Amino acid sequence: MTFAYNATYGIYSAYFGHLMISSRLIYSYNLIWLTFHGSHDFGYLIKIITRCPLPNRLEEFLWFVKVMFGDNVYDVKHMMSFCPSLFGGLDRVARTLNVDREGKSHQASSDSLLTSNIFQKIKET
Fold first, then answer.
1. What is the Cα 3 distance to its own chain's centre?
2. What is the pTM assigned to this prediction?
3. Residues 35 and 75: beta-carbon distance below 8 Å
4. How far apart are CA 41 and CA 21, in angstroms?
5. Source organism's superkingdom (predicted)?
């Protein structure tokens, strides 16, 4: 498949799930996963990889996250709940912590880099 084809028609979720497994991005416990309010993202990935409905209980969902993504899963939005001065969205938190953004807001690469830099700043602080 080409990028032009994918831009027009998308990609089948089952095929994407297969690519995730074969790429060794999941079930590889030496990676660190950083998100900003990413529980829905993990839910989507779990659903397309298992090709089953998501579990109804939080404990079961967290078990899938641990098995598929390992112990190094960090959600900056959740971490903020332990930092009384931090609240709001990604850009607000960045301003509070004096972390500069590279690129445009709501672009995957820029948001990912900003999330990583905020995570590092919280760890240092």
1. 23
2. 0.83
3. yes
4. 16
5. Eukaryota
What is the C-alpha to C-alpha distance for residues 70 and 63, in angstroms, rounded to an integer?
A: 10
What lies within 8 Å, CB to CB, of 125 at 6+ separation is 97
- Angle in degrees, CA 82, 39, 31, rounded to 5: 85
Output the six-digit token pair for 94: 């960045």
Give the integer Cα–Cα distance in Å for 76 and 88: 11
The Cα 18–Cα 3 span in angstroms is 18
DSSP state of 11: -
Of 80, 14, 5, 69, residue with least CA distance to 41: 69
Rounded to an integer, what distance in angstroms lies between the CA atom of residue 36 and that of residue 118? 10
The identity of residue 20, as a single letter, is: M
Beta bridge partners of 33: 73
Cα distance between residue 74 and residue 38, in whole Å = 9
Q: Specify the residue for token string 């332990």.
A: 82
CA distance 57 to 102: 38
